[in-house]
Design a protein that fits this description.
6-phospho-beta-glucosidase; eight-stranded parallel barrel; EC 3.2.1.86
Length: 478
């Protein structure tokens, strides 16, 4: 591979989310948020699809691993030192909204919460690691969910603006790179995570989801404008869950169906946040699905004024579509729909592995928008075994990441302006989709298990040393 595959100042690093690593869920004045009431294990997956979840905890029936997570709240210095040892240029983390505004509605922020992130950013600065901060990463304050119905309610724009104003002012000298809403386009599939509500019914899910998305588009535009005003040299991006969509075969019926499904999922939110306008294709979709968006005067102008500086994305899998599907054709791990792709293998959790899809996706996005791109989530959730000598030989993770990094290098040669790569779960954490510790992503093993046992001791996996070499060689040594 050419030494010049990756640009000189490419941002190598890792990615996490507050609710999946921090723990300390009742410490430092923090309020409850969505993740605190999501149980671990199979029960969590059921909540993704059922309507009417009451957002209450039942500790006698379920476990809640996010409450402790991996205790980054107390161990951040140890973890950041390990990231620095790998050579991270950037670390993606999120701010827990309910640490700053415990209920989400307060007039004044919680100083203990603000001070915690001051300490984290100072520790990153000590090692020369650039923070990349997600403002909202599936962490809507529980009070805003239970009292207001989540992002269905336009009132959340006001509360979000207050939160954003506080954190931008507080960290104006510490954080340059920001993301507004994590995987914003996932909301139509999983409104529970991104929009903070459980659909009233299957019949109302799309209407409620797209209305909630509109509120987030306005809120995102406000955040972009605030960032440019408060931190003039800041870069603020959107964040998409990207899954290039293939037709199952060359049947034009399936090709057209794949195009329709793919553009709504992959491009609708990007068009609004990057181009600053609702795309023409969405009007037919709204009409055919009886979706009517309640907009206020000035919303579209604000969205046009608040376009993002760059596009970030998560990439885990592609999607293969067929208009008429048989039950046996649907893949169990295809959380965003589609049928099994006969040419792809799957992970332990049924997620199809498709490195070429990353190159395809990067070309699609850059060809459409001509904005800098950053891959801020990509990784393999797998079972890891600690050997008798304490080693963890995760060659399968190395193989997965190597193939995806090669795909990024090819995309750069294609002319894509790719500025950074943060692998998902650079340290083991609580899986968002399954609520499990056993679905491990990290270069760093955390001794914590689904039954709640474990010492929380950190161990370097084989992939730790491999990724360190990748970074030090700027992607040359794979």
């Amino acid at each position: 591979m050419s030494e010049k595959s990756f640009p000189e100042h490419f941002l190598w690093g890792g990615a996490t989310a507050a609710n999946q690593i921090e723990g300390g869920y009742l410490e430092g004045g923090r309020g409850l948020n969505l993740a605190d009431v999501l149980p671990g294990g199979p029960a969590r997956l059921k909540l993704l699809s059922q309507a009417g979840f009451d957002f209450e905890m039942d500790k006698e029936k379920y476990s809640y691993p996010n409450h402790e997570a991996i205790d980054f709240y107390h161990r951040y210095k140890e973890d950041i030192a390990l990231f620095a040892e790998m050579g991270f240029k950037v670390f993606r983390l999120s701010i827990a909204w309910s640490r700053i505004f415990p209920l989400g509605v307060e007039q004044e922020p919680n100083e203990d919460g603000l001070a915690f992130y001051d300490r984290v950013f100072d520790e990153l600065e000590k090692y020369g690691i650039e923070p990349l901060v997600t403002i909202a990463h599936y962490e809507t304050p529980l009070h805003l969910i239970k009292e207001y119905g989540g992002w269905r309610n336009r009132k959340l724009i006001e509360y979000f603006e207050r939160y954003v104003t506080v954190i931008l002012n507080r960290y104006r000298n510490k954080v340059k790179y920001w993301l507004t809403f994590n995987e914003i386009n996932s909301a139509t599939h999983f409104p529970l995570f991104g929009l903070g509500f459980s659909a009233t019914s299957d019949e109302t899910r799309l209407q409620e989801s797209f209305q909630g998305l509109h509120h987030q588009f306005v809120a995102s535009a406000i955040a972009v404008k605030l960032a440019h005003k408060i931190i003039p040299d800041s870069q603020i991006g959107c964040m998409l869950l990207y899954a290039p969509t293939y037709s199952y075969d060359s049947n034009p019926v399936n090709v057209m169906y794949a195009l329709e499904e793919g553009r709504v999922f992959n491009f609708f939110c990007g068009d609004v946040q990057v181009r600053g306008e609702y795309p023409t294709f969405i009007q037919r979709y709204f009409k055919e699905n009886d979706i009517k968006i309640d907009m206020q005067q000035g919303d579209l102008e604000l969205i046009k004024e608040g376009t993002v500086d760059f596009i970030s994305l998560s990439y885990y899998m592609s999607r293969t579509e067929k208009k008429e599907k048989k039950a046996e054709e649907i893949g169990e791990g295809n959380l965003i729909g589609g049928v099994k792709n006969p040419f792809l293998k799957s992970s332990d959790w049924g997620w199809e592995i498709d490195p070429a899809g990353l190159r395809i996706g990067l070309n699609e996005l850059y060809g459409r928008y001509q904005k800098p791109l950053m891959v801020v989530e990509n990784g393999l959730g797998a079972y890891d075994k600690v050997e008798e000598d304490g080693s963890i030989n995760d060659d399968y993770r190395i193989d997965y990441l190597r193939d995806h990094i090669k795909a990024m290098a090819e995309a750069i040669k294609d002319g894509v302006n790719l500025i950074g790569y943060t692998t998902w779960g650079c340290i083991d954490l609580v899986s968002n989709s399954s609520g499990q510790y056993s679905k491990r992503y990290g270069f760093i093993y955390v001794d914590k298990h689904d039954d709640g046992t474990g010492t929380l001791e950190r161990k370097r996996k084989k992939s730790f040393y491999w990724y360190k070499d990748v970074i030090s060689s700027n992607g040359k040594n794979l």
